[in-house]
Automatic annotation (TrEMBL):
Keywords from the named record: Hydrolase
Signal peptide segment: none
Pfam family, one: Hydrolase
Spans traversing the lipid bilayer: none
NCBIfam families according to UniProt: HAD-SF-IA-v2, HAD-SF-IA-v3, HAD_type_II
Known role: Catalyzes the hydrolytic dehalogenation of small (S)-2-haloalkanoic acids to yield the corresponding (R)-2-hydroxyalkanoic acids.
Protein name stated in the entry: (S)-2-haloacid dehalogenase
Database matches in SUPFAM superfamilies: HAD-like (SSF56784)
Family the UniProt entry places it in: Belongs to the HAD-like hydrolase superfamily. S-2-haloalkanoic acid dehalogenase family.
Amino acid sequence: MTAHPSLASVRACVFDAYGTVMNLGDLSTEFAAALGDKTAPLMDLWRRKQLEYSWLRTLMGQHADFWTVTSDALDYALSSFGLDDPALRARMMQAWMAPCPYPEVPAMLDRLRAAELKTAILSNGSVTMLTAGIGAAGLTDRLDAVLSVESVGRFKPHPSVYALAVERFGCTPAEICFVSGNGWDVAGAASFGFKVVWINRAGVPQERLPCGPDVVLASLDNLADILGA
């Protein structure tokens, strides 16, 4: 199968974890009974604050691992909605240790590896979070590497994070296909020099940032096809 022209030189495929390989939408479903009509706005606020805190900590030089950032963001979200339920909070945090993968992920990774493409996760997640989540999803043996920002003490989209994949695979940025469902992550990876595939499941507009994706897909189903796998 012939690869998409812009991806013909790719030797490794590197994935964002949360919202790309792992389905964060399942978290809303899991806690809908407890949160009721607060589910969607609270979960949206939790995720937004999680990302904002990661970016702000990097700008301030005040790094904390993603578990701490996620915890702080949840506390803000719960407080914003007047909720004080330690048991619910504990359950919501624990859900990040075993998020469900999108259903097409295992077969897609198998195809890439059969085509001798290297595969990896490059994530803001802490090593503990990623190890647990990838293991629970049955993906451990389908990945050549799991790379966490903890190696550099900064969060994406800082260039030092994307450089971890270049160092791991010993190739140029243009030989790496970076795959993300997050528009800001797409822009950061493209700015670094990766070939980038944006998984735009929700059909949202492209971010108004200097760099964008080489290819846009609605899911991971056709990723192996465009990589010639």
